[in-house]
Design brief:
- The chain is mainly beta and 145 residues long.
- The protein has a single domain, classed as SRCR-like domain (Mac-2 Binding Protein, Roll), CATH 3.10.250.
- β1 and β2 form a beta hairpin.
- The two termini are 31 Å apart.
- The model has no long low-confidence stretch (mean pLDDT 88).
- The chain binds calcium ion (2 copies).
- One calcium ion (CA) binds next to loops.
- The site of one calcium ion (CA) has 7 residues, from loops.
- It comes from Strongylocentrotus purpuratus.
């Protein structure tokens, strides 16, 4: 690398299948869609009972995205299990699974109540930006507005 080169490292949105991970499906890209969570080796949906902006903001944060764009949108019914219901986040949690919620699989919902939502890609997002300058990596956390 030549002196003066600048590399910017940005976050990566992962939709990999591991316990508790989230993804948005059936939208035009990964910032919008029906919200699904991976649990017990399968993707499932989340019921929209008590689903409000605070809950959606935790979902956006966990997925590495920016602020909530719309907490309620319809991206069609899921087909797997309804994994969660009655999610109640304070809004500061890093993961949906640390919010108050019903037990896994316990719900009184059909797939017509599946959560659909969207997040901004960068607005409100905080993340480390690495600048490789002459003397090595210099990490700063920046927040997009
Ligand atoms: Ca809630
Ligand atoms: Ca319910």
């Amino acid at each position: 690398m030549c002196a003066g080169d600048i590399n910017v490292v940005i976050g990566i949105v992962s939709t990999a299948a591991y316990e508790g991970n989230l993804r948005l499906v059936n939208g035009s890209d990964y910032t919008e869609g029906r919200l699904e969570i991976f649990h017990d080796d399968q993707w499932g949906s989340i019921c929209d009972n008590t689903w409000f902006g605070d809950d959606a903001s935790v979902a956006c944060r966990q997925m590495g995205l920016g602020n909530v764009k719309y907490a309620y949108q319809d991206y069609g019914p899921g087909q797997g299990p309804v994994h969660l219901d009655d999610v109640d986040c304070r809004g500061t949690e890093m993961y949906i699974t640390t919010c108050q919620k019903g037990d896994w699989g316990v719900n009184n919902c059909g797939h017509d109540s599946d959560v659909g939502m969207s997040c901004f890609l960068f607005e409100g997002k905080s993340m480390p930006i690495g600048l490789f300058l002459n003397f090595g990596w210099n990490l700063k956390t920046v927040t997009f507005v």
